[in-house]
């Protein structure tokens, strides 16, 4: 099959308004990736070849988003929303280039799996002119029904055009179709709009092909894989299904999830073998976690890289540009942003490290803050290897602390500290013997006088 050339057409013109959103429907996300990008990915994975995206008039946001897909699709505009058959023909120029297989998909059906697309293409390779991906929904209302005769698919009847008997059919059109490239244009060009909706139905090619004596087949996919998104409740449902799949994939690849249903993945999350993820962890986009890492409960991680043997959390926040090298530790209530925590360094409690390097083996005491922002610009703090920063210190950037530097607790450090030096950045302590008792007695007397007077 791999020698067969393929064109994948994703239909994404025609906006429902049920999302109640200023954003085009297909740009809403699951796992942090646009719905239409999920479809493009599945097509790609199924060897979908050239990618064509059909967008509506003025859908500049979709056009812009699609330009960032890898590979970027060729964009076609369907000026008027005249139906799915009409939409496919918006990509006529691409179809005319000649491909063995043409896959048609919907941009709002993000859970399709490459396997279903491959199965449909395989049927073309075996001689079918059209292969329709069917499914059996719990409630078939609203879907096109697959009409079979003598075990052969002969037509698809849309809900509004179906007879009462046809409406009883439970096998429905999932909206994915594989069409033989050599027949596609001849079939599509004969689709008319004499139906209840007055639309050019892509689904009509089944009947046309059957009349031509061509071989038409239906394959079957799971109902969840052809779930179409029309509102935010369905968006959340798709997210849940996608997360469940993704967690399973992670566990089967050797990641331990203690309470998988509480861990949120992004489309590009990478986690190595023997990493343990405790409950209630959020992986935003751009996270790469190596093997043998422990991510403790309630950590929020995005745009971060974590090397093997490291420990994160509980309640840690790793923001974009956080780079934890081998066996680093970032503990509870710590935030790390755009900073490298080198090998074996420890940032254990209640700390903010931003725009910084924490050298190998350094120890950052509780409550340490890198003061990286002066209201206008961000500045860098460079902490040398083996440095020790006493608790509750403020490191005012730009600042360089040499290897082995030692900062006394409670310091405000504004000047560079050379290697192995000890820096105090706080007032010297003054202790006055007996003064504590004197003060207490004075306050007690004042309080008694006030009580008597009142
Ligand atoms: C379609 C199928 C139906 C199937 C169902 C599965 C047709 C005629 N019907 O119905 O058999 O059971 O999907 O969910 O194909 N689009 C365009 N331009 C248009 C019209 C639609 O790009 O002019 C795009 C839409 O953005 C959407 C997709 O095509 O992504 C499907 O269109 P929609 O109107 O939702 O079709 P359904 O009525 O749901
Ligand atoms: Ca639909």
Nutshell version of this structure?
This protein is an alpha/beta fold and 454 residues long.
Query: What are the low-pLDDT stretches, counting only 5+ consecutive residues below 50?
Result: none
What does the main sheet amount to?
A: 11 strands, parallel
Let me know the number of strands: 35
Structural class computed from helices and strand pairing: alpha/beta
Bound molecules: uridine-diphosphate-N-acetylglucosamine, calcium ion
3D structure, described in words:
By secondary structure, the chain is an alpha/beta fold. Strands 13, 15, 16, 18, 19, 21, 22, 24, 26, 29 and 32 form an eleven-stranded parallel sheet that branches. It has a ten-stranded parallel sheet with strand order 12-14-17-20-23-25-27-30-33-35, covered by helices on one side. The model has no long low-confidence stretch (mean pLDDT 96). Residues 11-14, 54, 78, 81-84, 86-87, 106-108, 143-144, 156, 158, 172-175, 201-203, 228 line the site of uridine-diphosphate-N-acetylglucosamine. The site of uridine-diphosphate-N-acetylglucosamine has 27 residues, from strand 1, helix 3 and strand 10.
């Amino acid at each position: 099959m791999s020698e067969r050339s393929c064109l994948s057409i994703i239909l994404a013109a025609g906006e429902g308004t049920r999302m109640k959103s200023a954003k085009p429907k297909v740009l809403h996300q699951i796992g942090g990736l646009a719905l239409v990008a999920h479809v493009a990915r599945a097509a790609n994975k199924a060897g979908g070849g050239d990618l064509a995206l059909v967008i509506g008039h003025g859908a500049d946001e979709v056009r812009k988003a699609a330009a960032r897909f890898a590979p970027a699709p060729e964009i076609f505009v369907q000026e008027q929303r005249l139906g799915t058959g009409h939409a496919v023909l918006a990509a006529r120029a691409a179809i005319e280039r000649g491909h063995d297989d043409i896959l048609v998909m919907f941009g709002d059906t993000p859970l399709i799996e490459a396997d279903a697309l491959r199965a449909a293409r395989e049927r073309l390779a075996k001689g079918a002119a059209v292969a329709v991906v069917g499914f059996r929904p719990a409630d078939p209302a609203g879907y096109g029904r697959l009409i079979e005769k003598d075990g052969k698919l002969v037509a698809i009847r849309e809900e509004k055009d179906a007879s009462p008997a046809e409406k009883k059919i439970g096998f429905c059109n999932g909206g994915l179709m594989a069409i033989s490239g050599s027949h596609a244009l001849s079939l599509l060009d004969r689709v008319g709009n004499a139906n209840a909706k007055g639309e050019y139905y892509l689904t009509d090619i089944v009947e046309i092909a059957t009349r031509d004596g061509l071989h038409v087949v239906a394959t079957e996919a799971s109902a969840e894989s052809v779930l179409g998104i029309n509102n935010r409740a369905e968006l959340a449902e798709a997210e849940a299904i996608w997360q469940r799949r993704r967690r399973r994939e992670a566990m089967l690849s050797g990641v331990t999830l203690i309470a998988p249903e509480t861990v949120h993945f992004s489309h590009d999350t990478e986690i190595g073998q023997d990493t343990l993820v405790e409950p209630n962890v959020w992986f935003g986009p751009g996270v790469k976690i190596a093997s043998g890492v422990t991510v403790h409960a309630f950590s929020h991680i995005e745009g971060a890289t974590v090397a093997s043997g490291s420990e994160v959390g509980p309640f840690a926040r790793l923001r974009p540009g956080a780079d934890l090298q081998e066996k680093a530790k970032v503990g509870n209530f710590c935030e790390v942003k755009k900073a490298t925590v080198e090998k074996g360094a420890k940032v254990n409690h209640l700390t903010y490290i931003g725009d910084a390097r924490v050298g190998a083996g350094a120890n950052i005491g509780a409550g340490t803050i890198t003061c990286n922002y002066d209201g206008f610009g961000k500045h860098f703090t460079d902490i040398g290897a083996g440095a020790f920063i006493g608790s509750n210190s403020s490191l005012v950037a730009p600042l360089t602390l040499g290897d082995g530097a030692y900062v006394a607790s409670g310091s405000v450090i504004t000047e560079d500290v050379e290697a192995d030096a000890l820096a105090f950045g706080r007032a010297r302590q003054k202790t006055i013997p007996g003064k504590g008792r004197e003060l207490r007695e004075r306050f007690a007397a004042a309080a008694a006088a006030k009580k008597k007077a009142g």
